Amino acid sequence: MKHAEITGWGKCLPPAILSNADLATFMDTSDEWIASRTGIRERRVCHCNFSDMALVSAKRALAAADLDPSELDLILLGSLTNDSLCPNTASLVADALGARNAAAIDINSACTGFLYGLHIGTNLIRTGAHKKVLVIGGEFISHYMNWSRRDVAVLFGDACGAVVIEESDEETGLVAASIGCESDAKYAIQITNLGSAYSRMTDDFLYINWNFEGQEVFKRAVRAMAQACEEVLEQKGLSISDVNLVVPHQANKRILDALAKKVGLDEDKVFINVHKYGNTSAGTIPVALTEALEEGKIEPGGHVLMASFGAGLTWGAGLIKWSDRITPLTQSDADLPPCNKTALELIEAQIKRYEERAKVTA
Ligand code: UT7
């Protein structure tokens, strides 16, 4: 039986920081409301394309694995904010990396995109179909934000992360997983006015809106992630006390506190960075995994539990048995181009566009 060792990891955070105080300059909100309801203090805004963030995190992950891109045979990219409908973003990353021998697939399961990708990639390695896979997860969600929606706009941010997985004889990597979808609640998170279900002949087309049932998502997220965590532990005959660290999807600190309570976990075993980046959807877990390694929170041979939840409503959990190596083999100096604007300047035109639209439709 083959396994899929995680041999490399990397993250990319765009430099422009949008604080809660920045948001309060143009919407009726406050640092107190956002921090107390979500734990979020600030988030990042991307100044380039999503594929640029994906490429930087990919190069950093490949350097950590000391792997030449030509050795990759598959790239899986989880995102709902791709550069274009066609070509897919995994192809853009493959070309920019020089990964000439890799198939390239985009996965859109929203926030669970990275976990879904890791599950699929791991199982393709287990079957022998692939040997060296790059799994990327990230989002350029500010691009699709409707800045007139204070209940949504304060929650999200831009980021990307990636891991390299390689065939191994050792039982390591993603050793158990459970993924699913509560499709009966598919419209609890919905981006409207973009996509082939929407007529291009109306003035509404491209004026993105969000249907967002925050409390419904909150309740379902806690229940589904807790259940998925129990399922993966049961698959390996382990209990929550065997877990060294939980690296969950970072949507809301209150969701993570409720999850920890439900599964009977000490809060200090839950990795949290939502205060710095907000909800970066498919980016949260690979970024958090990378930071957990950088901060020495993952032990050689330790068990890391991941749980995720997002639009669809897709859910999942995965248990990683980390290998002996917790440090990168080499470092990449890849980075984004410099950014000469503040986060508020980057989103200024979008804010105005929605304000003007609101006047027209009032
Ligand atoms: O990754 C998956 C996607 N993530 C999620 O879907 C997140 C899940 N849900 C949540 O995190 C929480 O439900 C929210 C953070 C979205 C909302 O927290 P809540 O405690 O459920 O607040 P609420 O929806 O009950 O809103 C309470 C009040 C409302 O005012 P009224 O009707 O009570 O007068 C809102 O209009 O807070 C108001 N409000 C705000 N006030 C200031 C909503 N957004 C804001 C805001 N600033 N940004």
Briefly summarize what is shown.
By secondary structure, this protein is an alpha/beta fold.
Fold and architecture overview:
The protein has 362 residues and is an alpha/beta fold. It has one domain: Thiolase/Chalcone synthase (Peroxisomal Thiolase, Chain A, domain 1). The protein has 11 helices and 13 strands. The chain has helices at residues 20-23, 31-38, 50-65, 89-97, 113-127, 150-153, 214-235, 253-263, 274-277, 284-294, 343-361, and strands at residues 3-12, 16-19, 42-45, 74-78, 103-107, 132-139, 159-168, 173-181, 189-192, 209-212, 245-248, 303-310, 314-321. The strands form 4 sheets. A 5-stranded mixed β-sheet has the order 1-7-6-4-5, sandwiched between helices. The chain has a 4-stranded mixed β-sheet with strand order 8-13-12-11, with helices on both faces. It has a two-stranded antiparallel ribbon with strand order 2-3. Helix 3 crosses helix 4 (89-97). The model has no long low-confidence stretch (mean pLDDT 96). Oxa(dethia)-CoA is lined by residues 29, 33-34, 37-38, 111, 150-151, 154, 189, 214-215, 217-218, 251-252, 279, 309-310.
